[in-house]
Amino acid sequence: MVVADDQEIVRTGLTMILDAQPGIEVVGQAADGREAVALARRLRPDVCLFDIRMPGTDGIEATRLLAGPGVEDPLAVVVITVFDLDEYVYAALRAGARGFLLKDAGADLLAQAVRAAAAGDALIAPGVTRRLLDAFARNRPAGPPEQPAEALTDREEQILRAVARGRTNDEIARETYIAVSTVKTHIAGIMAKLGARNRVEVAMWAYETGRAGNTPR
């Protein structure tokens, strides 16, 4: 994976934490977004971990360039920041990020987010969930959200809500008493119906349509 942060001590610390995790290897480091994009395009890592606030090209723009709409072969990007701001959460996920963490998340959650992104899943820091709902409510486009041509089944609606809450496939399987493989099949079906590229886009649609819980209308 590639790690990008403009502070050397933070970049080094993140690299040490990640390299110590089984199955995770940092293959490149960058001090700004432009360098990160060039490095990621050259190395094609399984996951990129980007700080939001970097000089020049920031983490959100770097994410958009590597994973945003229109990118032919998008990379998995997890965004990490110390800034607890709603607009950052919204902008990062709109740019194509598969995860959003605060820098106080801890080594375990950081590793989980990286592994989830590599597997095509998404992990949003639990403490961000409420703000994420609020941010989507404030930024929701005028008018009713676009509905799929084929309605979701009751089971798909149940799994959609779980995805929107940040549940992993294993957690959804335990909560719904079905096999993990069945969960994956349902999620694939939901993505196909919504035209979503990943779980984050599925969650975003759930927020925008008020299906993610107590989303403000």
From TrEMBL:
Coiled coil: none
Membrane-traversing stretches: none
Keyword Phosphoprotein part of the UniProt annotation: yes
Domain Response regulatory residue range list: 1-118
Domain HTH luxR-type: 145-210
Chain positions found as 4-aspartylphosphate: 51
Keyword Cell membrane: no
Name of protein: Response regulator transcription factor
Lineage: Bacteria, Bacillati, Actinomycetota, Actinomycetes, Streptosporangiales
